[in-house]
Amino acid sequence: MAYLAQYFTKDHFSNLLIQNIDFRGPKVIVDLGIGDGALTVAAIKKWRHAKYYGVDVDKERLDSLNERLPNVRLHNINSLDISLGKSIKIKMGTVDIAICNPPYLNLKKRSKYKTILRNAGLNNSVNIPCYTSDLIFLAQNINLLRDKGTLGIIVPEGIVCGHNFNLLRKDLLERHDLKMVIQLEPKIFNKTEAKTYILILDKGQTRTRTVQLCKADLNGKIEKRIKIQKTDLIERMDYKYHASANKNIKGKTLKELGVTIRRGNYSKNELEKAKQIYFHTTSNWSINGLSLRNTHYKLNKEPVIAKKGDILIGRVGRNCIDKITFVKSGKIAVTDCVYKVSISEEFREAVYNRLKSEEGKIYLQKVIHGVCAQVLSKKDLENFKVFVYKRHVHKK
Ligand SMILES: C[S@@+](CC[C@H](N)C(=O)[O-])C[C@H]1O[C@@H](n2cnc3c(N)ncnc32)[C@H](O)[C@@H]1O
User: What is the set of domains in the chain, with CATH numbers?
Assistant: First the structure.
């Protein structure tokens, strides 16, 4: 059922999540959105004597699970209700371990969700522009846990590196003890390309200053790990970014070089309808640059126009990082799927060459996110680093 986001965890990854929860003799374990029980089954193998609770909105699934796991207390209710504890007969703030692979769906910003976030100590997160079910499930799990109880949860990439979730990361890093972020291989769930991560955190504050960022292989084995200071993780907390070259390059960011980055202010459809010429992701991204006509536009508002010297970069789409070119002559309106990068002549060549270089591509590949459509954010582009030598600086 797509609307319930029923993507079930494979054994390798259930085991990986459970193995990384370090907790002796838990008494109560809860699995919100238990589905086919993958996480609970792995947990039972490790902690046989705990009392298990499972919650799911899909009644049929619980019926079949009931036969397989008769000792798990199953509840057919919505995990996003404020009265969750009462409904499953658990006092909030008493659970030892919460394990969860929540649905990833957009939610309306309801006041009950704000209460759930605040109760979990995620006060900044109340201001996140769009709420998602994974965000509220995360908060509900924290609400269920006792102080120093542990949560192991599989979350989508947005939570780990999306700009919208900066406030959540700040809360998790400052109000709770985030211990590990494990990057999973893409496409490990059937029928979705969601990029996912396992978070392991203990409820409540500590003085620990670092978090382990890891990368797991397709068999659920951790193959690489690094330790990163918590203060460096608010912007993003994915292994691929922190292990990447860009972070250590001593260069200047596009922002520091005074680059102006604008995306088009009309969609392709709007420009097409108005019978205007445009440059879009489907246009010809010639590596030799673009020789254009000097088109004049008849539109209600001034379109974003790329002109001689501007660099163009694809903003969305699977291959957006391969879409980099520059305007040799003439001008053209760009659509909202294209960035126009305007930069003074002295740095132009250095920026273009770096964007097209292998290292440049590695950086762009690492920062683009999005479940299906890959998106290069303006902020990530502004943070792109370029070596500028003295001749770039002094040349007039
Ligand atoms: C991504 S699946 C994960 C299932 C299982 N935990 C696993 O790891 O394989 C999410 C589960 O959450 C359930 N679900 C969706 N919305 C829910 C809600 N509001 N309350 C409780 N369960 C929900 C779905 O029916 C589905 O079984």
Answer: 2-243 (3.40.50.150), 252-394 (3.90.220.20)
